[in-house]
Design brief:
Chain lengths: ~220, ~220
DNA sequence: TGAAAAGATTAGGCAAATCTAATCATTATG
DNA sequence: CATAATGATTAGATTTGCCTAATCTTTTCA
C-alpha cells in the first residue's frame, strides 16, 4: 500500500521545512505547520523512519530520504496542478484554491495526473508563481529576489509570493498587484523600510516592509 | 463536522440498496457491497442511527432519514458529475472513471461542485446513463425497460447500463454498444432467452440474456 | 411446530492517528 | 559551568474503523 494521506502531509511538510532547515527539520516546526502536538509528531517520525521515508535520529531532527522526497514532490506536483486547473478553468481566484487543492492532492491516480497536466498544457508555474515539479519530480529552483531588494527607480515583475495566506493574496489583488504585474519602485523610506511603488496605471502606493519582503520579483532586463 | 468519508460511503450504499429493499436494507447486503464484515456494519449502523442519518431498529434493517438521503444524494451527485467531467474533458473511457470518482466524490467544497456543474453545462446524465441529482438533490426517476423486454422487430436506444463493472462496459464498447446507440432486435431465441441484434451498420450479433437484461433502453417512438 | 440454518448483534481486540502529563536531552544563560 | 528554559520523547488514554469468536434472533422447512 502507498503512504496514507497523513503520511503524505508529513512528508510534504518536511520537504518544505527542509528548505529553511537543511541540516534537519525540528519536530516542533512540523507540529506548528500541521497543527499537531509534539508527541503526535514524534510518533509519526518514528513510523516514517521505519518505512525509510526519512532519516530520523532521536533529538536530532529529520531529513527526507530519496523515496520520501519523491513522494513529497508528487504531492506538491498534484497540489499545484490542481490549483492551476481551478484558477484557469473553474473561475477561482488565487486566494480560493489552496484548501481545495489540499484535498485534491491526495487523489490517487497516475493517469488522472497525466491527463490533468496535459489538459493544462504542461504548466511550469502555479497561480502563486510556485514551480510545478514535472512527472519525474524535477522542479526548477527559483531565485529569491523579493521586492524589498529592488532599488529606488528600478522596475521588476511580480513572479510569486512567499506568504500564501488568503488575507495577503486578497490584499495584493485589491491593490492590483497580481502575477506578471510590472512594479516600479518610486521611493524607499529608510525609517521603516517601506517603499512607494507604481504598478500599471494605478496611483502610487506605499507598501510596508512586511508586504514587500513577501513579494517575489524578477528584475527587468 | 460533516459526515466522515466512511459514513458517506455507508449512506450511499444504503441509498442504492433501498431501491431494491425498500422495506429496510439488510446488514449483510451493506457488508457485501462495501466489503465489510457484518459486525463492522452493525457498529456503524448504531452510530448512524445515533446521528439520525438512518432509522435503525435491531434485527429489522435500516432506512435513511431525510437528512441521510440528502447526504447520499449529494455524494451521488458529485460522483456522477466527476465521471461526466473525466469522460467529457479528460479523455477517459466510461469503464475507467468509476474508481477515480469514488475518491473525488468525497472532496468537500460546495463551490467546487457548483463550478463543476456549470463547467459541464448542468448535465442530466452521467457517462453510464445514470441521472445526476440537481443541487437540491432532485433526481429524475428512470424507467426500467431493459433490452430483453424488446420484442422481435422493434428498435430501441441504449440509454444506460445496470452493471457498471469494467468487464461489462469494455465488452459493450468492444461490440459498439455505447450510450445513445440504436439497436434493432432481429430475433429472440426462446431456448436461452438470447437475442440477435443489429446496431448501427455492424453485422448481426447474438447477446445472452445476462447481457440484454443489464442494458437499459428506451423504445423508439 | 420445532430444530437447523441464516442473519444480526455483542464482546473483545487491534491499528492508525490523535491527545495530555510526565520524563528525558539539548541549549542557552547568569 | 551549573542550572533553567526549551524542545523531544515516552507513557498512557481516546476515537474511529475494522476484525474474529461467541451469542442472540429470525426465518426456513421437515
Ligand atoms: Mn497551495
Ligand atoms: Mn500554490
Ligand atoms: Mn460510478
Ligand atoms: Mn456512473
Amino acid at each position: 500500500m502507498g503512504p496514507s494521506k497523513t503520511e503524505e502531509d508529513y512528508l510534504k511538510a518536511i520537504y518544505k521545512l527542509s528548505k529553511v532547515q537543511p541540516k534537519g527539520v525540528a519536530t516542533k516546526s512540523i507540529g506548528d505547520l500541521l497543527n499537531l502536538k509534539p508527541p503526535t509528531v514524534s510518533d509519526m517520525l518514528r513510523k516514517l523512519g521505519d518505512k525509510k521515508f526519512i532519516k530520523y535520529a532521536k533529538y536530532k531532527g529529520v531529513t527526507l530520504t530519496n523515496e520520501g522526497e519523491r513522494i513529497a514532490l508528487k504531492i506538491i506536483r498534484k497540489h499545484r496542478l490542481w490549483e492551476t486547473f481551478l484558477v484557469d478553468h473553474f473561475k477561482f481566484k488565487w486566494d480560493e484554491v489552496h484548501d481545495i487543492a489540499e484535498q485534491l492532492e491526495h487523489i490517487d491516480s497516475a493517469r488522472l495526473v497525466e491527463r490533468l497536466d496535459e489538459f493544462l498544457g504542461f504548466p511550469k508555474f502555479d497561480p502563486h508563481g510556485d514551480p510545478i515539479p514535472d512527472k519525474d519530480g524535477v522542479i526548477v529552483p527559483r531565485h529569491d529576489i523579493t521586492l524589498d531588494q529592488i532599488k529606488k527607480g528600478q522596475k521588476a515583475v511580480l513572479v510569486g509570493v512567499k506568504d500564501h495566506s488568503t488575507e495577503f493574496l486578497k490584499y495584493l489583488e485589491s491593490i492590483s498587484l497580481t502575477l506578471d504585474t510590472e512594479v516600479k519602485v518610486i521611493n524607499v523610506i529608510n525609517y521603516d523600510k517601506s517603499i512607494v511603488v507604481k504598478a500599471g496605471n494605478h496611483s502610487e502606493r506605499n507598501l510596508s516592509f512586511q508586504v514587500s519582503k513577501n513579494i517575489i520579483v524578477q528584475r527587468n532586463q
